[in-house]
Amino acid sequence: MVGEEMSKELGGSLLVENVQALASNNPLVDESLQIPIIDMRKHMVEDDEMGKLHLACKEWGFFQLINHGVAEEVIEKMKVDLQEFFKLPLEEKNAYARLPNGIEGYGQPYIFSQGRKLDWGDMFMLGSLPASQRNMKFWPENPSSFRATLDKYSLELQKVSTCLVKLMAKNLGNNPKHLTDMFENGRQAVRMNNYPACVNGSNVMGITPHTDADGLTLLLQVNEVQALQIKRNGKWIPITHIPGAFIINIGDIIEVMSNGEYKSVEHKTVLNPEHERFSIATFHFPNVQAMIGPLQDLVKENGALYKTLSNIDEFFGLSQKAKLDGKSLLYHMKLEN
């Protein structure tokens, strides 16, 4: 049934102990590092930028993308409509509440174990592409412009994602068409997040540590409240967002398809004691025909590190298993496991 297909599990989560690293003197936090900055415009004229992109995907799994080509008015309109929706009375937002065992709609993130900290925030998840699979009963009519705004925003981010996948395929030494064909007419989901201010974060997190069970994630900071942290060499690195940039991260699927060359990195969201935060994460997945496994061109010398699954739905099933048993999705994808 249309709509139900878009309600399959769309995210990966590692159920691990976590530390609320809010203080700058916390030994588990390293504020001296920042993720790479990639200039999309320079890719049109400078070969050196391709090398920077390759290293960002290989060594960091995260980067900030500037000059990405998405019009400022498209982004700003999405920000306005998102905040207007979250300002609505609770009963009006609950008209779009997520159903039991569903993923689309308004509500709180799932809790998969009794001992896990609560994710302190409200989220609104929508399957955005392909347009034919949208479940419009979850798409708000208030604000009145919301549907048109998200439609335009989702299409623009799909263009950026397609371009990045093509550049990554070139860097991997793979025929770009092999990878881009897998993401052509692929699924896209948008998760809009509202994290209220929280003075006491001892029992809650914004979002607990996890990797993304998609191909590529594009994150938009709606307001300039910093909260995202990524794990690198055993420490958490706070990300200082560049206004106008998208924060890009490699998902589990790209790590698998690159045979481990590109890294899907654990990250989390911490809470701000004084200010609420809004963000929009847009997840990009291969199409239903794509097999999820290492690209054949990349396993000729050293062999495959990961299993190959027959389609994206089998991958989503494995993602659900990983959430329930507390092991990472990539753990389940490793051939030795």
Automatic annotation (TrEMBL):
<dbReference type="InterPro" id="IPR027443">
    <property type="entry name" value="IPNS-like_sf"/>
</dbReference>
<dbReference type="InterPro" id="IPR044861">
    <property type="entry name" value="IPNS-like_FE2OG_OXY"/>
</dbReference>
<dbReference type="GO" id="GO:0046872">
    <property type="term" value="F:metal ion binding"/>
</dbReference>
<protein>
    <recommendedName>
        <fullName>Fe2OG dioxygenase domain-containing protein</fullName>
    </recommendedName>
</protein>
<dbReference type="InterPro" id="IPR005123">
    <property type="entry name" value="Oxoglu/Fe-dep_dioxygenase_dom"/>
</dbReference>
<dbReference type="InterPro" id="IPR026992">
    <property type="entry name" value="DIOX_N"/>
</dbReference>
<dbReference type="Pfam" id="PF14226">
    <property type="entry name" value="DIOX_N"/>
</dbReference>
<dbReference type="Pfam" id="PF03171">
    <property type="entry name" value="2OG-FeII_Oxy"/>
</dbReference>
<feature type="domain" description="Fe2OG dioxygenase">
    <location>
        <begin position="186"/>
        <end position="286"/>
    </location>
</feature>
<keyword id="KW-0560">Oxidoreductase</keyword>
<keyword id="KW-0479">Metal-binding</keyword>
<dbReference type="GO" id="GO:0016491">
    <property type="term" value="F:oxidoreductase activity"/>
</dbReference>
<comment type="similarity">
    <text>Belongs to the iron/ascorbate-dependent oxidoreductase family.</text>
</comment>
<keyword id="KW-0408">Iron</keyword>
<dbReference type="InterPro" id="IPR050295">
    <property type="entry name" value="Plant_2OG-oxidoreductases"/>
</dbReference>
